[in-house]
């Protein structure tokens, strides 16, 4: 369907007579300048012929964008099955999740099939795509069916793939994966009774591979108070693995600081926020090149924080966290935040927002109310965390109910075409971009969609010189290259040069890798 070319700021947008309540920025306070006004280019579809729920995006070191999505199997919405757009589910279905790449910052996308001999196998996994990139530059991809977790590998930036292990784990739901040094992968999941493959335990667990996903260690059961949930991250300078934990009240960060030596038991866990009541299945977090941690989550309004999107950060490896800051304004229901991190203190966050406040902020409320992707960015994320906000998708990406119950939605015929999350990253020009699902073709599945920052604060900065110290996100040192920026740190209209880290001799790569994120219930 056509998209509006105009980019509207949140304070100017009105929907069905009701404004989206995002107040204009107030006057700058001393020591905390307001970021430049955030704007977005027109949204677009990545592919109109394949399903697009639960997209995960990542930026490869050379600037290539990677995009993956669910095949639609457990997102199929039967009441709309007769619509012609439902061909996006059946026409190219192979029982695998989908992968695309872009070498022009999302203007054009190339689908990367994985069914050729040696590249993969049909039915390797229709759900829960996950991307990880190790410090040597190899890309790893995992996906699940209802019983197996398959792991694939690419040594050419995601162009071609080889299946490493069809059954890296069995009877496991919502796996997350992260990479460290060459061929070193960490894998978390929610094991089911009777699970096998790497010694899967019943319940939440962590395991490790040192051969690029061909084999995994015996799984270590969650031994931290409260279940681990969401994606994991690795500080590639020292090998510390981080995972968010939630016990229904406290949101915490667990650190596995001896993971490189094979010890997969958390050494410590520290509280991010107390009396948290999340609407989503999990929070999203990431590191900057110096190892600072940033986290975002949504609130129902029934905890200590009011309803909305919240943010915090840690500058001491997760031991202490700043007081939470609310990112959105107004009272419209907001869910599913995700973040992308650039240089220190520079963070982009996006979420889904309804055009009104729903009863109890319940996204399963009956009706045909519109949802849009709304975003915010800050360059002071390690300090006062002052955000610039904008509506990223002026046209709604979805109308009405969004199921929050995982695969149980199928039994109740509740709309789950979007899945349970979408994701955000930062490209190597300093712009945040969003991979999200869109149901506006009224088909039985969603389509993969993309929107990229056009103007506003840059999430990468120019540095005065090269550093020989490895970064937390790549494990490699950085170098400085010229870039054009406006006064105050805003993106120049034509400035495409940016700081990139070094990846081996003579190779420039982007200073961040973001991958992402489900677990208080079964949610394939």
Radius of gyration: 21 Å
Largest sheet report? 5 strands, antiparallel
Tell me the total number of β-strands.
34
Let me know the average pLDDT: 82
* End-to-end separation: 28 Å
Q: Indicate the low-confidence ranges by residue numbers.
A: 1-28, 494-523
What general form does the structure show? Answer: globular
CATH fold topology: Neuraminidase
Number of helices: 2
Determine the structural class based on helices, strands and strand pairing. Answer: mainly beta
Domains counted in the coordinates: how many? 1
CATH class: Mainly Beta
Report the CATH architecture: 6 Propeller
Percent helix, as a range, is: under 10%
How much of the residues is beta strand, in percent?
Answer: 25-35%
How would you describe the overall organization of this protein?
The chain is built from two helices and 34 strands. It is mainly β. The chain has a single domain (about 10-500), classed as Neuraminidase (6 Propeller), CATH 2.120.10.10. Strands 3, 4, 30, 31 and 32 form a five-stranded antiparallel sheet that branches. Strands 25, 26, 27, 28 and 29 form a five-stranded antiparallel sheet that branches. Strands 5-6-7-8 form a four-stranded antiparallel sheet, with no helix packed on it. Strand 25 (about 335-340) and strand 26 (about 345-355) form a beta hairpin. The longest helix is centred in the C-terminal third of the chain and has 5 residues, at about 410. The radius of gyration is 21 Å and the shape is globular. The model is unreliable at about 1-30 and about 495-524 (pLDDT under 50).
């Amino acid at each position: 369907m056509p998209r509006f070319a105009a980019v509207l700021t949140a304070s100017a947008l009105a929907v069905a007579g009701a404004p989206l309540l995002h107040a204009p920025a107030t006057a700058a306070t001393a020591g905390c300048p307001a970021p430049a006004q955030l704007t977005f280019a027109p949204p677009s579809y990545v592919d109109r012929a394949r399903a697009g729920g639960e997209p995960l995006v990542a930026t490869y070191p050379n600037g290539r964008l990677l995009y993956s999505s669910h095949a639609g199997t457990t997102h199929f919405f039967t009441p709309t099955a007769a619509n012609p757009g439902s061909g996006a589910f059946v026409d190219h279905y192979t029982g695998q999740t989908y992968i695309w790449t872009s070498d022009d910052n999302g203007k054009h996308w190339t689908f990367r099939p994985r069914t050729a001999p040696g590249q993969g196998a049909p039915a390797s996994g229709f759900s829960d795509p996950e991307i990880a990139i190790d410090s040597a530059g190899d890309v790893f991809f995992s996906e699940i069916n209802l019983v197996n977790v398959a792991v694939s590998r690419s040594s050419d930036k995601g162009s071609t793939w080889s299946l490493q292990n069809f059954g890296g784990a069995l009877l496991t739901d919502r796996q997350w994966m992260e990479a460290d040094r060459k061929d070193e992968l960490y894998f978390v999941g929610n094991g089911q009774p009777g699970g096998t493959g790497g010694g899967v335990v019943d319940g939440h667990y962590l395991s490790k591979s040192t051969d690029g996903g061909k084999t995994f260690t015996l799984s270590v059961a969650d031994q931290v108070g409260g279940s681990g949930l969401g994606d994991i991250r690795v500080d590639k300078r020292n090998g510390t693995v981080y995972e968010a934990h939630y016990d229904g009240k406290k949101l915490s960060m667990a650190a596995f600081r001896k993971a490189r030596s094979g010890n997969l038991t958390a050494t410590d866990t520290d509280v991010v926020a107390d009396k948290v009541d999340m609407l989503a299945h999990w929070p999203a977090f990431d590191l900057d090149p110096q190892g600072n941690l940033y986290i975002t989550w949504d609130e129902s309004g029934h905890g200590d924080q009011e309803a909305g999107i919240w943010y915090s950060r840690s500058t001491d490896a997760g031991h202490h966290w700043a007081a939470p800051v609310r990112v959105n304004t107004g009272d419209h229901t907001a869910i599913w935040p995700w973040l992308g991190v650039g240089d220190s203190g520079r963070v982009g966050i996006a979420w889904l927002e309804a055009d009104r406040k729903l009863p109890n902020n319940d996204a399963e409320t009956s009706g045909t109310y519109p949802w849009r992707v709304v975003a915010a960015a800050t360059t002071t994320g390690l300090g006062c965390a002052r955000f610039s906000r904008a509506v990223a998708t002026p046209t709604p990406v979805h109308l009405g109910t969004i199921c929050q119950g995982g695969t149980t939605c199928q039994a109740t015929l509740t709309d789950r075409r979007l899945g349970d999350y979408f994701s955000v990253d930062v490209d190597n020009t300093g712009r945040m971009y969003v991979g999200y699902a869109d149901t506006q073709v009224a088909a039985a599945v969603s389509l993969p969609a993309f929107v990229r920052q056009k103007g506003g604060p840059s999430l990468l900065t120019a540095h005065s010189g090269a550093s020989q110290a490895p970064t937390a996100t790549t494990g490699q040192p950085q170098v400085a290259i010229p870039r054009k920026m406006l006064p105050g740190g805003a993106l120049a209209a034509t400035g495409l040069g940016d700081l990139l880290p070094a990846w081996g001799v003579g190779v420039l790569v982007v200073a961040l890798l973001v991958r992402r994120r489900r677990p208080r219930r079964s949610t394939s």
